[in-house]
Amino acid sequence: MIIILQIILFIVLAPFLSGLISKLKNNLRMRRGQSVLQPYYNLGKLFSKDEVVSQTASWIFRVTPFVVLSSTLAAALLIPVFILASTAHQMGDFLVLVFIFALGRFFLALSALDTGSSFGGMGASREMFISSLVEPAFCMAIFAISLQSGSTDISAFSGMHLIPVSSVVAAIALFLITIAETSRIPVDNQEAHLELTMVHEAMVLEYSGRRLALIEMASYVKQMIFFFLIAQVIFPIGELPIDLTQIIPWVLWYFCRIGIIAITVALVEVTIAKMRLFRVADFLGFAFVLGVIASICAILGV
Amino acid sequence: MLSLFPKQLFLSDLLSLFFLCVIFIISLPSAIYSFGYLKGEYSPAKITLSWVLLIVFVLSMAAVVTVGNALIFLVAWEIMSLVSYFLVVFDTTHEKSIQAGTIYIIMTHIGTAFLIAAFLILYKYAHSFDFIAIKTACFIMPSQAKNTVFLLLLVGFGTKAGIVPLHIWLPYAHPQAPSHISSIMSGVMIKTAIYGIIRFVIFLLGVNSLWWGVLILVLAVISCLAGVIYALMERDIKRLLAYSSIENIGIILLGVGLAMLFMAMNKPYLAVFSLVAGLYHLVNHGIFKGLLFLCAGSVYKATGTRDIEKLGGLIKKMPQTAVYFLLGAMAISALPPLNGFVSEWLTLQAFFLGAFNLTGGMKLFLGICASLLALTSGLAAACFVKAFGVTFLGLPRSHYAESAKEVSLSMKSGMFFLSFLVVIFGLASSVIMKLLARVASAVMNIDVSSMSFSLNTFTLSPQPGRNIYLSAPALALWLIFFGIAGFAIYRIFGRGKEIVYKTWDCGYYKLGSRNEYTATAFSKPFRVAFNFFLLPYRKTQKIRESFYHVKSFTYETHTTKVFKKYIYEPVLVLIFRIANFMRRLQPGSIHLYLGYIFITLLLLIIFMGQF
Amino acid sequence: MLGIILFVLLASTYLMVISKRMPALIRGFRYQSLCLFVLTFIIALTQREPDFYIIAGLLFTLKVSLIPYLLYRVIRKIKVNEDLGLFINPQLSLLWALAFTYLSWIFASYLFSSNDPILTSTLAIAFFVVLAGIFLMIFRMTALAQVIGLLTMENGLFLLASTVSGGMPFFVEIAIFFDVFVSVLIMGFFVYRINKFFTHIDVNKLSRLKG
Fold it and tell me: With an 8 Å Cβ cutoff, are B469 and A91 in contact?
């Protein structure tokens, strides 16, 4: 029951987070920008539109949005939002998260190649390149966090009270990984549809209408999951308290820490320029090195 | 001679039983597949010959994994190598087959030479070829001898398994063999080498030194990375699968090496767990690699070419083969909830658990190895997106792809059986893990009755007490549930139509198969990122009509075969140079030869007093 | 008496070693075989066994008459340059032959420290004949010299065997004679064919075939 509530919360809040970030970015650029609820309007608009499916596409193109959405929502099941351990957590641990995202990405890349356009091939090639370099960095960050908490379960490190150095460094590594996975500058530009700069957008270029709405929803939820993870690592928070007087501050702090991360992401997007694709390898290598440093700190017990 | 005859010929061990099961569940579908595959390709006499060779091959592999006598083991090993050589050069009209067979037979015999050396040293200490006698003798063998035997066995079995740098025969032999043979070779034959390592090193020699496990881990990581990076660069579909086999052997050896490491550090639970992860990946790889090779064979039979850059759009022409290939590709990229995912998760968990329980530098070493394993699984996913996407999706790139048709029933049933196993081995992971734990405990002589690896029949839990779980059926259920929910939302909300139209072509209206991304283009970022290892070079040729007008421009990009160029070719050059030097002793003159005899006689006569 | 025959045997072998042309070589071989025949005849007379008579007879027919006749015919047929083709000039060959004689004398006295000088010297000469045969095969260019060298070696071995152990078994002797005869026939035939194909029988030129 709580699970369904958790999923609904994710689905409802995820576009808001994205809207918040773009509002912040626009304000930083001295513009008024779109409203914070714009992503909801976009999704509604997409649902009412027709779809155009390419002639060369096969059933993979048609099935992919559902696979991507279901994999992202299944990953959302693993995140402890309200309670630390539930029966859904018997489904997998931190490592399973890595593989579930891989499932969505695999099908998205296949659907990009399915349409037979060069944009799709280019997007698929770049996306697989970036994601394969993300994996070791992600694994190393998970390793550091698990060393600190003693198990690979996601809810295990929610119980930590002090913030060790290793967690902070691992959180920075996770932050870099989040930028790569959620297609933000400096890895990818969500706002422009230029061939030189697209990765994720190139893969979904052929999608339109309701299918595009589902894929956009999936990317919002994925972003939400990553932000939750980073927030949990840096500012670990315990379970929902039973005491009524403590619920409101808990909830406020819960969402504030995600807001802090959103502000950081917006700042990073506005101040840094997008990197050349082959420099992304260095970027992710840096994330890997941060993960190694975090593990060394965890081994030393700091 | 009679004294060499073994008292107990067959070892009825759980490990042998496990390997027999692996052999048969992969050979049977391949044999059924070969009905349809060989029909029409060769004359009936040749087909009968291929059946005979296939049966001898499978029986020899079964003999290798079950005998309990080192001499008979060698005989069975040799028979296996020879019969597989005949199967590799089966298509004698292609000169590439002959070249592939030559490299294969030379490398496998070098490996066998090392094996014979190792067995001779073991015989010296045990005075018998029987496994049980060797095992008792190994308790008292000095550690220097044990180290030598271990290294000899590693090289000997490593040549057959395809550990880098002894792997060069794999990319030649596996593509040239007929596809059902490639699937058996890649799925089972290279696993018999892993059987050899497990049987001889873990079971017989007994692991007491730490550096054995570390050496195997390092070699395994190098094999993983080298294998998958080379696989990414390939455009021949079967060679891509062969390189991917090298990568997966590396992953299996990661599990085995971890088991050896933990045995040396005296942690029985972790050792059993890692060995279970290794064995699980062994059987999984056999299944999905066998499936992939059978699908590649179907593609070859339907289109006539193995070059994926000439294919495309096959999903519309061969829909069932496409589904099987997709399942195999998903399994090998470790996507949930299929079997590859479970075994890779188990291997990663073995690394993490080891890191939790060990101290100091070993933790970091295991962590780095784990992240390199994650890197290879990411690269493998990229590789198979390329393989499936360029072959099956998009527009057909040549007449080969346009004239493809779906394959016959026997081929489809072979592939269907293996893809069914792919799904089963993923969902029933907990049950299989219990069986494998018993196999591993039999090998290492550790009691597993008190160890529990799972919470219930659906959930795996590596360490009871901590909340680390994996439940593949639950994952599958939730995935399907969310998929259906998404589909429901899709149908209920919104009333738009779906229009089928051309792909977006920026307004040019002339989009064809030449505009599609090729396999070489797909792997370009990897070529650039790993250029320190791949050393790519390009050859360009410009033909000009005049100074201002270039008529044609040819562009080729190649990657340097590092191992061939820097290790094998210098060795070959050295051998030929020594042989040329020896040639001077033989000028072809009869008189000189007679002179040699004469001088020897004289010397014997003069110095006869000494003898 | 025996000493004189041994001396003639030695001298005939020296003749073979220093010969420059083919007829001279064959002549030396004939004298050698004749001496051998006389020796065997004397042994036959003293031993009074019919085997030795037969062997002596065979020796005479084959090695003294038939084989040299065959070889003369081959030479005349092929009409080749009768020069033997020497790697070492006759004078140096003689010096080498003397050295070999001395060597075999030391060897014989080392092996058989018996008081009978005739026995020791027969042994020494037998060894020397074998060495001379090998010498001929190595240091003479034409195929004919190889054939003669082989036959000389066989002579020496026969002498050695009959001195040391009273002769090899009868049938072995017969078999050897037969073998030798057939091989000479064949060699003669081949020399003819080789000459027809290559227009020379210079074995030294075989090294041109080297790959």
Answer: yes
Task: Read off the pTM.
Answer: 0.83
- Mutation pick from A12, A122, A135 vs chain B, by most beta carbons of B within 10 Å, is A135
pLDDT per residue as tens digits for the range B397-452: 888 888 888 888 888 899 999 999 999 998 888 888 888 888 888 888 777 776 77
Q: How far is Cα C198 from Cα B564, in angstroms, rounded to an integer?
A: 47
Q: Which regions of A233-288 does DSSP assign to beta strands (E)?
A: none
Alpha carbon of B404 to those of A86, B40, B319, B344, B513: distances in Å?
A: 51, 16, 11, 35, 16
Q: Which ranges of B162-209 does DSSP label H, i.e. alpha helix?
A: 170-176, 179-184, 190-197
Name residues 93-112 of chain C within 8 A of B (Cβ): 103, 107, 110
Task: Round to whole Å and give the CA distance between C31 and C27.
Answer: 6
Q: How far apart are CA B581 and CA B22, in angstroms?
A: 49
Nearest CA in chain A to B481: A70
pLDDT tens-digit readout, A127-174: 999 999 999 999 999 999 888 887 777 777 666 666 778 888 999 999
CB environment B241-278: b (16+ within 10 A), e (fewer):
bbbbbbbbbbbbbbbbbbbbbbbbbebbbbbbbbbbbb
What is the C-alpha separation between B21 and C79, in angstroms, rounded? 80
Residue B541 φ then ψ, to 5°: -145, 125
> Across the strands, what pairs with B536?
B559
- Helix H or strand E segment including B498: strand B498-501
Instruction: Locate B592 and state its tokens.
Output: 């000189």
Report the C-alpha gap between A221 and B482 in whole angstroms: 13
CB contact under 8 A, C210 and B588: yes
| Residue C87 sits at the chain B interface (C-beta within 8 Å) | yes
Question: How far does the CA of residue B594 sit from the closest CA of chain C (Å)?
Answer: 6
Closest to A224 measured CA to CA, from A4, A9, A3 = A9
DSSP secondary structure string for all residues of B507-564: T-----GGGSPPHHHHTHHHHHHTHHHH-EEEEEEEEESSSS-EEEEEEEEEE--HHI
ipTM score above 0.90: yes
In this structure, the strands spanning A51-54 and B550-559 are unpaired
- Interatomic CA distance for residues B426 and B336, integer angstroms: 8
